[in-house]
Design a protein that fits this description.
Number of helices: 9
Strand content: 25-35%
Helix content: 25-40%
Number of domains: 3
Structural class: alpha+beta
Largest sheet: 5 strands, mixed
Length: about 450
């Protein structure tokens, strides 16, 4: 602590009585961090005018992702695009799934000893793509061969399901039931045909596009309810045909985001802002603060964690300051005197401009000068973060950090992404605050870090 001189002498008990303040200019900071001005009891002398806060410059807007409007034309184009994706997927799937269709020549090769009418019945059932008829025809000829009957019947069921899916794709009317029917047919065939299990896996992208088609069919264009990113856990459609950083809100609980260059189509659950590679933090941000910043003179603080009231004299006048309170003094020559407690005696200091905090120590109360060093951590954010300190617009580049230092608590103002009034925070500590998206409303905020630990949403698999 910097001091011009220190002296110790007993402090008379009567001097601890709260006296009137005469001729001392003091301004309190009203904020969540500091509480009210130190009390002067009983009031006496002329009332003092509060200094008007200095006008602060407007900060640059911090952009949040604004979804692409879902117009009727854009919705129609998206629906046609998905329909074409489904047709392409079905066409690509055809060459692989044909390998497990029933083969007439192979099926008949083992029926040379069958009666002609039994062979004819089997051939007719295969051509009709009727799995039940195939099964019955096979057992009619070979009652004991249920394994053979099931294998060829299941192959027939796969063919029938695929052809139905193919026709629906041509008509632009594929449903989840179409994809599920083919998947079920392949699953039943898999125990006797290993290739069927691989085909089930290959069917996954097609099923995803079919789900997307259903979501688009239920979407309403130009809805006011889908003009901004929804909060909370929503359905995320990752579209490889859209560029990174773009989003289209399809419903209050469904968002399509660009995934180009980051993998194939997928439907997941999560936070929309996080899906757009923004740092989403599910934690309490730095609290809002009121009042004006201190940029000169002396600021006295009794921290809220002290839990007790301290008494002291300023230039001979006595004050009592409760925990969580503060007192701001205009630039002048100030001498402070306070009882350290018990038999520890009295301390007296000449105060130079800066911030001082009453602090309990092993040798009683002490007054320590503070310095505030804060790092604005924007390393997880790809976008620049704009803010205002002491009326000066500043920024920290995306992927970088910026250090701030002051003899007084740092008041920072910034736009949360609304383009409206700036919020104000009091950084009355030294440490790091991280720039991130508040999970509660998907707007920008700053969050105190603990041990330089980055906070994000907890991973939820389902």
């Amino acid at each position: 602590m910097t001091s011009l001189f220190i002296c110790r002498r007993p402090l008379c008990a009567h001097s601890l009585i709260i006296l009137a303040l005469t001729g001392i200019a003091s301004i309190g900071i009203s904020s969540a961090a500091y509480g009210q001005l130190a009390r002067r009891l009983p009031p006496r002398g002329p009332s003092l005018r509060n200094e008007l806060p200095a006008k602060m410059a407007d900060g640059v807007r911090n952009e949040v992702i604004e979804p692409i409007p879902l117009t009727a034309q854009r919705l129609a184009e998206a629906q046609e695009g998905v329909a074409q994706q489904i047709r392409d997927q079905v066409e690509a799937f055809r060459s692989d799934v044909k390998q497990v269709f029933p083969d007439e020549i192979d099926a008949l090769s083992g029926t040379s000893k069958w009666r002609p009418e039994d062979r004819a019945a089997l051939l007719k059932a295969i051509k009709s793509i009727d799995a039940a008829a195939v099964y019955e025809a096979w057992l009619e000829a070979q009652p004991a061969d249920t394994t053979g009957a099931e294998r060829i019947a299941r192959q027939t069921a796969v063919k029938r399901s695929f052809l139905a899916l193919e026709q629906s794709a041509e008509d632009g009317k594929v449903t989840n039931d179409d994809a599920d029917a083919l998947r079920e047919a392949l699953d039943k065939l898999a125990p006797t045909e290993p290739r069927a299990a691989d085909l089930t896996q290959a069917l996954a992208p097609l099923s995803t596009w079919v789900q997307i088609q259903g979501i688009l069919d239920a979407a309403s264009p130009d809805s006011a309810a889908i003009g901004k990113l929804p909060t909370g856990k929503v359905t995320i459609i990752r579209n490889p045909n859209l560029s990174l950083g773009t989003a289209i809100v399809l419903a209050p609980d469904t968002v399509m985001v660009g995934n180009r260059g980051r993998g194939g189509v997928a439907i997941t659950k999560g936070n929309a802002a996080e899906a757009l590679d923004l740092p989403v933090i599910a934690d309490e941000p730095v609290r809002d603060a009121e009042g004006s910043p201190v940029d000169g003179g002396v600021l006295l603080i009794n921290p809220s964690n002290s839990g007790v009231t301290v008494s002291y004299q300023l230039n001979g006048e006595v004050y009592r300051m409760e925990s969580g309170m503060s007192q701001r003094l205009q630039p002048a020559i100030w001498t402070i005197e306070f009882d350290r407690g018990g038999a520890m005696g009295v301390s007296q200091y000449r105060l130079v401009p800066g911030t001082y905090a009453f602090t309990p120590t092993e040798t009683g109360w002490e007054l320590y000068k503070r310095r505030y060093d804060v790092t604005i951590d924007n390393t997880r954010n790809p976008h620049d973060f704009h803010f205002v300190v002491n009326g000066k617009p500043l920024e920290v580049r995306g992927g970088h950090a910026k250090d701030l230092a002051s003899l007084y608590p740092i008041f920072i103002r910034y736009d949360r992404g609304t383009g409206g009034e700036l919020v104000q925070k009091a950084l009355n500590f030294s440490g790091t605050v991280e720039v991130g998206i508040n999970a509660a409303d998907n707007l920008w905020d700053i969050f105190p870090e603990e041990g330089n630990k980055k906070r994000t949403l907890e991973v939820e698999i389902f």
